[in-house]
Fold each of these.
Amino acid sequence: MAAIVTAEDIAMSYGSTPILKGVSFALEAGESLSLIGSNGAGKSTLIRCLLRLEPITAGRISLFGREIQNLKPSELRSTRCRVGVVFQRHNLVPRLSVLSNVVQGALGRNTQSFGSIISGITLWSHITAGSAHRDRAMECLERVNLADLAHRRADSLSGGQSQRVAIARALMQDPDLIIADEPAASLDPIAGEEVMGLFSELCREAGVSLIFSTHNISHAVDFADRMMAMKSGRISLDGRTGSVDLQALKAEYA
Amino acid sequence: MHRANVPPRFGNKPIAGFLAVILFLLVSAWCFDGSGFSIAQLLGSSEYLLRFLREAFPPIDEHRLTFEQFHRYWLALIETFQMAFAGTLLGLVIGFILALFASRGLMFESRRSNFLQWSVKMLISLFRTVPDLVWAIIFVMVVGLGAFAGTLTIMVDTIGFCGRFFAEEMEDVDRSSAEALSASGARRFDTVFAAVVPAATPGLITTSLFAFEKAIRSSVVLGLVGAGGIGLELQSLMNWMAYDRAMVIIGMIFALVLMVEQLSSYLRKLVMKNER
């Protein structure tokens, strides 16, 4: 199967402090990968580099066969729009409705022509969005069981509900890959379990690849086919989740 | 007791603080001296104040204030309101557009855009730092006496006021949600309007309401230099020492400003009530 994400010997530093040191891995289509490691190990930085939210200082990153460092802004957008992104928190626009936030997931798919500027404007809010986009957003909300909260303001939701809306927005993109940076970190254990279960189920159903980082070793093992552990900016372990020794992992990384 | 063990509140006051107080007192004394402030002169002028008040009251006297005159003042008051409203509206739109470019890292993020941001900030500063009366004198010279000069003055003044505060409000917005949209391929233009502007909206509305209050107050004064509105009527009555009719106008201005301030305050509370 073809690799949809490839990182080759990437390095990244903040000033003179090296954060990533020679990280290499490849992710195949349909595969789910969990990233574990203590704070400062480089998980979030790796995720931000994969999306070109931070520049790398050495190496190469390819998404869907395109080397992202050299892409022009329009090419970068057309690559990013295939990736649904869920951060730990602050994913949503607080004053807008849940439905508007989900509708905005289509913004990325809508940047390929000059005429799309006008249709992009309609996607700023569910009020201006066309019925096709609104219906699709409602479908995505139904898939995360939040259709009844569509017209609530995003800042009135609980942490778990917010993350589910962020997942719905990622689904609105119709992505080939979802990247989530500690999506359950700010949630209580039950909500965290639900959100991770939802991720894993939706990705498996739709054949979407998944990369997520977590501090929870059980989540890393239960919701991914493969896991990578990071230590001081390097990959210290890479293997199938079925073959890892959970107790040893907990002793080393929890 | 060892010096290091002394609690901070009992420790020696730093010498810099003491010097700052002395400097403040010296500057205050120097400024009061230069400002010509004199209580004796103020008390000595009381007869002029009494004369003004004697002639100003009663302000409405059927032998002195005709209906035609009152009707003219009313129209001038309406014109003042119209000038303030139209000028503020134009200023808000232009100020908002300039604020988008003056706000750090909002529309663009490159070295070249830093120069653009700096240039727009300078332009906004120019609009803000030159007083409105000076703008009014310039616009009266350019477009002639009347309400248009006043409207342009209020527009420029509002651009200066709102351009700065709008930019600061958008800079203060947490950019995480905009980054989440950008990471999923959205255009920067879309992320600004879909994520940053909605988050800044309460601040933008309250600033706009303050700008309108400010515009109403300054539109009254602009007439004094010929830029339309009720100030022009007030100035001519004061020149003719027709204090009774001047008092009618002062009363009308007071009512208008008070009404606008109350309405603005109510709307601000309404906006903030919806925010937690």
Amino acid sequence: MGKSESNQELDDFKPKGAIAFFIILIVMFAIMWFALYFELLSRG
Amino acid sequence: MDKSEKTALILSGLILVIFFSGIIYAAVVEDIDVPTCITDMDPFERDTLFQTGPDTYELQMVARMWAFQPSTVRLPVGSTVDLYVTSQDIIHGFKIEEHNVNLMAIPGAINYLRVSFNKPGEFLFACHEFCGAAHHTMAGRIIIEEGLDEPETEEDV
């Protein structure tokens, strides 16, 4: 493998696993937070 | 900075702004408050319930091993109660089901919270801080009734 090919691979790299993990983390946290938040609001 | 890093930072910041706005909304628009420790009032030794306005009442609740005074409170629908809680002996908890009330009853101190009862029913309140052998029996009821003229309290003997 040449040096330029290796650089091209690095440029094209996208951390798909990390992005998916991050999105799941945010969504799960938001669901839990809003579940408690709306419980708080419903109790007045 | 990498594009993915930038997106993650923006998303995290956005989520924080949304959560913080939610807390501000609950506090300002919905008037949902957190408990306050009252420092300019001497702790009371007896429970009291009296009317302070057309639909507002003041309830001074005393916790002790292992009962609340009063143990039963009857109030009309639509009542707003200024609730003051203290303890005669050790630290107890005070929680009313289905309402945003979660206070500590601390000897020598008074904790305050305002709560509204807008639907009729019977709501249990209980100690949620382990306080000894009969902790599990330390509970009472707030009964919200339609058409009740005078608020009432009952004591366990």
